[in-house]
Amino acid sequence: MSEMSEKSELSDAAVIRTSGLCKVFRSGAAALPVLEAVAFSIQRGEMVALVGESGSGKSTLLYLLSSLDRATAGNVTCAGRDLTAMSDAEASDFRNRSIGFVWQFHHLLPEFTAAENVAMPLLARGVAAAEALPTAVDWLREVGLEARAQHRSGELSGGEQQRVALARALVARPAVLLADEPTGNLDARNAEAVFTLMNRLHRDFSLTSLIATHNLDFARRCSRVLKLGSGGLQEVAPQSL
Ligand SMILES: Nc1ncnc2c1ncn2[C@@H]1O[C@H](COP(=O)(O)OP(=O)(O)OP(=O)(O)O)[C@@H](O)[C@H]1O
Ligand SMILES: [Mg+2]
């Protein structure tokens, strides 16, 4: 590697980067282009909001970044890995190790305790239960729910379940946090509590975060805002929302 290219790589702290990213859904002869030539980058430590009308492609973009779906064309780098040419097995390992994902619906297993739910990503990668469960309880303390560790997750309130989901997303110490309307299912008070918690965890654990949200108050509190719409993806000033 030449000295110059080494230098430019060192100065490039982009953790997420796409170029010419396209996603077209096909159904028979019909083609629905959702993302067209989307190009952006997110630097290490940024907390970025992804906004846009319903159907503009926010979830689709998050699926591509987390390798849950494949692009029709273009390049995707996430957590420093080029996802474009990954095999399915590599993609699954990448998701388990490098990405924390929070959904609008928490997707916890209601019959399992909060601690067991949080421990799942560690158990899935072969960490022994004797190690995974205490680590899960540490994370429940981090989200203010240590006292509920042994409760079945189905017994918790919606806001509490979303905090458990946040602990589960972060227990394996991913570099990147992707969230798809994480407060969309909560009342205003719980939404505020979950967003404030995400903000603190983002800082405390040096995450790089991309959060799709319809809540413009929350978007305004992020370091940057990316907006999906008919003109593609555009950066907008948080204050202009
Ligand atoms: N698997 C699929 N097959 C066909 N069309 C799809 C598929 N997934 C999404 N779409 C379409 O792609 C478009 C973008 O959907 P997407 O879910 O990404 O939007 P969104 O911005 O997340 O919307 P919302 O704010 O309602 O969550 C929609 O028109 C949707 O119907
Ligand atoms: Mg969506």
How would you portray this structure in words?
The protein has 241 residues and is an alpha/beta fold. It has one domain: Rossmann fold, CATH 3.40.50.300. The protein has 8 helices and 10 strands. The chain has a 6-stranded mixed beta sheet. The protein has a 4-stranded antiparallel beta sheet with strand order 2-1-4-5, covered by helices on one side. The longest helix is centred in the last third of the chain and has 17 residues. The radius of gyration is 18 Å and the shape is globular. The termini are far apart. The N terminus is likely disordered. Adenosine-5'-triphosphate binds next to β2 and α2. The site of magnesium ion (MG) has 3 residues, from α2.
- Outline the biggest β-sheet: 6 strands, mixed
Question: From N to C, what is the helix and strand string?
Answer: HEEEHEEHEHHHEHEHEE
Proportion in β-strands: 25-35%
Number of domains: 1
N- and C-termini, Cα separation: 44 Å
Uncertain stretches of 5 or more adjacent residues = 1-11
Radius of gyration: 18 Å
CATH fold name:
Rossmann fold
Q: Identify the CATH homologous superfamily.
A: P-loop containing nucleotide triphosphate hydrolases
Question: What ions, cofactors and ligands are bound?
Answer: adenosine-5'-triphosphate, magnesium ion
In short:
With 241 residues, the protein is α/β, with parallel strands linked by helices. It has eight helices and ten strands. The protein is globular.
List the keywords.
binds adenosine-5'-triphosphate, binds magnesium ion, 6-stranded mixed β-sheet, 241 residues, globular, Rossmann fold, 4-stranded antiparallel β-sheet, 10 strands, alpha/beta
